[in-house]
Specification:
This protein is of the alpha+beta class. The protein contains 2 helices and 4 strands. A hairpin with a 5-residue loop joins strand 3 and strand 4.
Length: about 80
């Protein structure tokens, strides 16, 4: 892992830890997850992309932060090129 990637991982972990301290629920593919589990998923699945979904409460504050794996493989059948 390069210095830039290590810095990104540390930054992500720090951000998620702050959210967790604020009582914001963190989910990974629909399941409760710790900041470390989310970071490990990002490291282990470098080819994957995780989309963030912020769920707000009635006041507009973040109550959940969801990370969902996005499958980037699009079949020719789903989206024909012509």
């Amino acid at each position: 892992m390069g210095d830039h990637q290590e810095q990104q991982v540390h930054s992500l972990f720090s951000e998620l830890t702050d959210y967790e301290k604020e009582g914001i629920h963190i989910l990974l593919n629909g399941l409760p997850a710790s900041p470390m589990q989310v970071v490990q998923a990002h490291i282990m699945r470098e080819d994957s992309v995780y989309m963030r979904d912020y769920v707000l409460n009635e006041k507009g504050d973040i109550k959940e932060l969801c990370f969902n794996n996005v499958d980037q493989r699009i079949s020719e059948h789903e989206y024909p090129s012509n």
